[in-house]
Amino acid sequence: MIEDPADAARDAFAERVVVSYPADLSEWGRFQVEKPSFRAFLRKTRDTAEAGDVWEEFVGVGCCGNTLDVPLRVENVEGGSRIVDDTEIEYDVREACGIQGSWRVQSKGGPSS
């Protein structure tokens, strides 16, 4: 049986995945997504990655209980598409998207949506 090249690429593991977050993500939000534990979380919760995928990820709960969800976009995948424990997760910054992620997220004057 001859293996389809598309199947082989899908089954191969991703050596490196570049994921971007919006430029207007707060310093606190950047600290959260760039932690080794968050990278490990992505490796455990995502089976595959392809350029253009967008992952809406919960980043954390602030001191007042409000949440911050961040749209992470896959910019580049080296190797196959399957994410494994050894897949390197790297970050890049893309254009702002109006995320409103700062201490305002946790304040009365913050976003209501």
Describe the protein in words:
With 113 residues, the protein is an alpha+beta fold. The chain is 21% helix and 33% strand. It contains 3 helices and 4 strands, in the order αβααβββ. The chain has helices at 5-11, 27-33, 36-45; strands at 14-22, 54-61, 67-79, 88-94. Strands 2-3-1-4 form a 4-stranded mixed β-sheet. Strand 2 and strand 3 form a beta hairpin. The N and C termini lie far apart (53 Å). Residues 105-113 have low confidence and may be disordered.
Features:
113 residues, alpha+beta, 4 strands
Give the secondary structure arrangement, pairings included.
Elements: H1 5-11, E1 14-22, H2 27-33, H3 36-45, E2 54-61, E3 67-79, E4 88-94
Parallel strand pairs: 1-4
Antiparallel strand pairs: 1-3, 2-3
